[in-house]
Design brief:
224 residues; alpha/beta; Aminopeptidase; 2 domains; two-stranded antiparallel sheet; 33% helix; Peptidase_C15-like; Peptidase_C15-like_sf
């Protein structure tokens, strides 16, 4: 029996529920594969909680695949993240903590003056700044573009009601943080962002997550 670990997040900000967890909890994510055991875990939207959890999940379950699910409330598709940056993580979590909070001083200083450090131009509405230092990134072992292509073919065939797209920006919040932490343990990990339930029913989101896992397992068999 091989384990697949799937994580979803708890509540954060003003969200009354989080479909990244609601779609996978209570054994609802069973696959029609007799040799696969799906383990689901809820993750607090906390950097410290992620630090304490991720290595333990890899050590305890020794999964062939780990899939992290997060909420992108305004998306109209499933977003599969290609890379995970190691920073800067400046947005505070539910505990009002952020690993790179000190870098806010750099950002706020240049935003206040309207200096666009990325282009060298000056603008009163400058809001995106070049970070004070460069951060590495980690990448999954999967060819995410190929995975998306396969999933969208199934979407066009009516196998799943939600479309899929690749992304290289997981948001530099706890979502991207858990992804980079996981990839630094093992590259057999993927992060997917799901839309909110005001855009798609929870059952459709769950079906899409299942299909992503199925395609990733098929890809893994080819890699191995």
């Amino acid at each position: 029996m091989r384990n697949v670990v799937v994580t979803g997040f708890g509540l954060f900000r003003d969200h009354k529920s989080n479909p990244s967890w609601e779609a996978i909890k209570d054994g609802q994510l069973k696959l029609d594969r007799p040799n696969i055991n799906v383990v689901t875990k809820q993750v607090k939207v906390s950097y410290q909680h992620v630090d304490q959890l991720i290595s333990r999940l890899w050590d305890e379950y020794k999964p062939v695949l780990m899939v992290h699910v997060g909420l992108a409330a305004f998306e109209d598709s499933i977003r599969i993240e290609q890379v995970a940056r190691h920073g800067p993580y400046m947005h505070k979590d539910v505990d009002q903590q952020a690993p790179h909070e000190d870098l806010r001083l750099f950002y706020e200083k240049h935003t206040a003056t309207g200096e666009d450090t990325a282009s060298g131009n000056s603008s009163s509405s400058a809001s995106i700044m070049e970070p004070a230092c460069k951060f590495d990134c980690s990448q999954s072992c999967f060819n995410i573009e190929r995975v998306c292509d396969k999933l969208n073919k199934l979407h066009k065939q009516g196998k799943v009601p939600i479309g899929f797209k690749c992304s290289q920006d997981a948001g530099l919040y706890v979502c991207e943080y858990i992804y980079q932490k996981s990839l630094r343990v093992c590259n057999r990990a993927v992060f997917i962002h799901v839309p909110d339930t005001d855009r798609f029913p929870l059952e459709d989101i769950r079906s899409a997550i299942k299909l992503v896992i199925e395609v990733l397992l098929d890809e893994l068999n080819e890699i191995e």
